[in-house]
Amino acid sequence: MKRILALLSLACLTLLSACNTVQGAGKDIERGGEKLQGAAEDAKK
User: Fold this and answer.
1) pTM of this structure
2) Is 6 exposed, middle or buried (0-12, 13-18, 19+ CB in 10 A)?
3) pLDDT of residue 38
4) Which of 2, 10, 32, 41 has the lowest tally of Cβ within 10 angstroms?
């Protein structure tokens, strides 16, 4: 029973950390897109 509980706890921790990683990557990609958009607008002028 302790082994099952330990495995479930480990699985939950892994899933939670993966969500934070994906969220952080999404924010980084969004910032990069904003900078590209700003550079494209500057090039138009």
Assistant:
1) 0.55
2) exposed
3) 87
4) 2
